[in-house]
Amino acid sequence: MRQIRVIINADDLGITREVNRATFDRIESGKITSATLLANAPYIEEACEQAAQFPGCSFGAHLNLTEFSPLTGPEGLEVLLDDEGFFTEDPIRSISRNSSLSNAIYEEFCSQVERLQSLGVTVSHIDSHKHIHTLPRVFPILKRVQKRFNIRRVRATRNMYAAHEVVSKSLLARKIIYNFLLRHYYKTVTTQGFTDLTTFLERGRAGRINYKDIEIMVHVGSHSYYEDDSDLLDQQWQEIQDFPVRLIGYYEL
Hints:
Mean pLDDT: 94
Number of domains: 1
Distance between the termini: 20 Å
Strand content: 15-25%
Structural class: alpha/beta
Number of strands: 7
Helix content: 25-40%
CATH topology: TIM Barrel
Order of helices and strands: EHEHEHHEHHEHEHE
CATH architecture: Alpha-Beta Barrel
Largest sheet: 7 strands, parallel
Low-confidence stretches: none
CATH class: Alpha Beta
């Protein structure tokens, strides 16, 4: 029986002390193999200090244009900010990109990566808060950041869905194209599949796992945006699958 390689990546490190605590507890117990850090989050210094204690775990940059204040300041990013100077979620999904905004976003992304590096993190890969790195308007900027820092591993766009989710053929086609371009324009390594833990477990029970390596996104210690995956992670979910699972980090791709 074919073995499936699985990365369990915890998002949002640095966002709260509760998220930091829940994430590192499960890194220590081997339930989480990778995590991504929000460089402009309130508790990022604490998260990076703890990350240094786990050299076997891959730590990436969780690029952010949807929450907290920009590291580079508001200049050039005004259309993405609220009246208090904080990123908000909707503008990046609807505004037209121009060269001035693109350059400002590029500088902000670079500052976020550099912030993590200055705090002692070796950035293994890139993903993003609210998946903004998968937006077509952000793609060229992402590639500029990869080239600047020689980061060759990036999270793919989601391509595994639960049975109840209705996904159009046109959306699936766009995702295939995005993942192809992600891998081949400035050669980049991704997993074949990407999804959340609940969907992975459902598809596994139904015999619908078609990829040899998969990234599973999890959120632990948080009740703000996503369902907390802590309980699912703490169960012996690997042992109830009908196929062997090998947990890996991004460095093993």
